[in-house]
Design a protein that fits this description.
By secondary structure, the chain is mainly beta. It has three helices and 31 strands.
Length: 361
């Protein structure tokens, strides 16, 4: 009897175990973590401490209270980093930052192949700590990370020189970098990017891609210090641009090979780029400069006047062999057809490059 009873009990336990294994595992619930400058009420005092905590895991949200946080933030987990709003939660470049040649020279870095992070509701601010080569980027997406960067103000990403230095660093948002063999992807939406040194947004390298929507990218206006670019897609990177306002990128220095050479949108050895409409591009020496690209398409874009003289400033420079269809694009005021042609460089000016087709105005 004992043997039979033991067998019954063993069979019951075995079935119970199998049933237990068959029960669905309950997913861990995402946590909400808080940060405030004093580290009070159970909150962390710095953003990085909240990210690095062993209890902070993928899917968590970090709410950052109003205040200024002087730190270089590295997001290497799939987190939602939520500020209290532009001008309220400020991530400030710290007093010490690696040189711009370093991958770590950014106010906010988002990195890691499995990382999908959101950052919104912040002012992200420089300047770097020294007069040249002191800061690479405001936000740098790399290491195959994916980022959703929206509703932020990114400002003063420049060296510690007013208004900027002439050094070739200081970009608001960088996605991937061919020279460092690192790529990234991003949605960049509804940000204000101002007082940058070299560029507003750069998407660089084959494998890097960005959807760039509804941003205001504003250079410092005509300057003899450096040739700024508003949005750059380069070296095999791809992008879609929709409803952005790009203005104020202008460089004038007599005798310089880059005199009147700043660009609103620069496509340099890019992959396919889609301009989906609503992009307003004005007040730049060259509103759209296409040096080389796999393909470019256009929607209902609006080009405005250039500050550069008529013989050197263009709405469109096409140095590719692509024939471009800009029949849905509009031009400033009531320009006549010949005046529109004066501001387009294409096959009519150089038979070795492609033609730009425009609608009659």
């Amino acid at each position: 009897m004992k043997t039979k009873l033991s067998l019954y009990i063993s069979a019951f336990l075995f079935l119970a175990l199998i049933a237990g294994l068959a029960m669905p595992m309950q997913a861990a619930r995402a946590a909400t973590i808080c940060v405030n400058p004093g580290g009070t009420d159970g909150c962390f005092a710095t953003i990085q401490a909240a990210i690095d905590a062993v209890t902070t895991t993928d899917g968590d949200t970090i709410n950052v209270a109003a205040g200024t946080y002087p730190e270089a933030v590295v997001i290497n987990k799939s987190l939602n980093l939520i500020g209290a709003g532009i001008g309220l939660s400020v991530i400030q470049a710290p007093a010490s930052l690696p040189a711009a040649t370093s991958l770590d020279s950014a106010v906010v870095s988002i990195l890691g192949g499995s990382v999908n992070a959101e950052i919104t509701g912040f002012t992200i601010a420089g300047p770097g700590p020294s007069a040249c080569g002191s800061i690479k980027a405001g936000v740098f997406v790399r290491g195959s990370a994916d980022a959703n960067i929206h509703h932020n103000r990114i400002q003063d990403i420049r060296d510690n020189a007013a208004p900027v230095s002439g050094c070739q660093n200081g970009i608001g948002i960088v996605v991937g970098r061919n020279a460092d063999a690192t790529v990234g992807t991003a949605t960049i939406a509804n940000n204000e990017i101002v007082t940058y040194q070299k560029g507003g947004i750069v998407v660089d390298g084959t494998g890097s891609n960005a959807n760039i929507t509804g941003n205001t990218v504003t250079g410092i206006g005509t300057t003899a210090i450096t040739a700024q670019n508003g949005i750059q897609i380069s070296r095999g990177a791809t992008a879609t641009l929709l409803g952005n306002n790009v203005t104020g990128n202008s460089f004038h220095l007599e005798g310089s090979p880059w005199d009147w050479g700043a660009a609103g949108i620069l496509l340099y050895q890019s992959g396919s780029v889609t301009m989906s409409g609503g992009n307003a591009i004005s007040g730049n020496d060259q509103n759209l400069y296409i040096d080389s690209a796999t393909g470019v398409s256009f929607g209902a874009e609006a080009f405005g006047p250039s500050p550069a003289p008529l013989d050197v400033g263009y709405n469109i420079i096409n140095l590719t062999t692509l024939n471009l269809n800009l029949t849905n694009v509009t031009y400033p005021g009531s320009l006549g057809n010949y005046n529109i042609e004066d501001r387009i460089w294409h096959a009519i000016d150089d038979p070795t490059v492609g033609l730009v087709a425009c609608s009659l105005q």
